[in-house]
Amino acid sequence: MIYNLARDVRAFTANVFLVTGETTALVDAGANFDVVSRIESHVDDLDRIYLTHTHPDHVENVAAVRDAFGVETWGFDPESEYVDHRVEDGEGIQIGDDDYEALHTPGHKPDHLCFYSRSAGVCFAGDLVFANGAFGRTDLEGGDRGTLVESIEYLREVAGSDLDVIHVGHGPSITERPLDDVELALRAAKTS
């Protein structure tokens, strides 16, 4: 099961996805709300935290989750205080009951990752793309529009028509024809 623990939070935060199964994991930790109690309402233990990137709205709750569950984090930048273990581009990881491939997708932030499971048809896209063709900001430190365009193209190439659901960093998950939203985001990022 996949739960968005930040779905009804009114504070500034990223979406936080709890994925239960063989490897019970959190994808991003969010900020400005009590994520620990929300995790505990679903599971007794947590195996890992995977970070799409280390902007504050995605990681400020990491310390609380580490303390509560004795869990470590995986992300792209091992120099970050929030990342215990590096995940390389193309590396296989397990989230829940499914195998995922980590895709290094910079442009919004240099350490940005997407996690894609071909067998499940699911992608955790962080702030790369959003519903209705929106895409991650490139005006923050480390952002670059051309690089973001290349990253969206990379996701499109790897996922292709096997993509069924995209869980995004902000707003609703894309559950109907997600590749259409990726194409819209790509066009918008190229022309904005």
From TrEMBL:
<dbReference type="GO" id="GO:0016787">
    <property type="term" value="F:hydrolase activity"/>
</dbReference>
<keyword id="KW-0479">Metal-binding</keyword>
<dbReference type="Pfam" id="PF00753">
    <property type="entry name" value="Lactamase_B"/>
</dbReference>
<keyword id="KW-0378">Hydrolase</keyword>
<dbReference type="InterPro" id="IPR051453">
    <property type="entry name" value="MBL_Glyoxalase_II"/>
</dbReference>
<dbReference type="InterPro" id="IPR001279">
    <property type="entry name" value="Metallo-B-lactamas"/>
</dbReference>
<dbReference type="GO" id="GO:0046872">
    <property type="term" value="F:metal ion binding"/>
</dbReference>
<feature type="domain" description="Metallo-beta-lactamase">
    <location>
        <begin position="13"/>
        <end position="170"/>
    </location>
</feature>
<protein>
    <submittedName>
        <fullName>MBL fold metallo-hydrolase</fullName>
    </submittedName>
</protein>
<keyword id="KW-0862">Zinc</keyword>
<dbReference type="InterPro" id="IPR036866">
    <property type="entry name" value="RibonucZ/Hydroxyglut_hydro"/>
</dbReference>
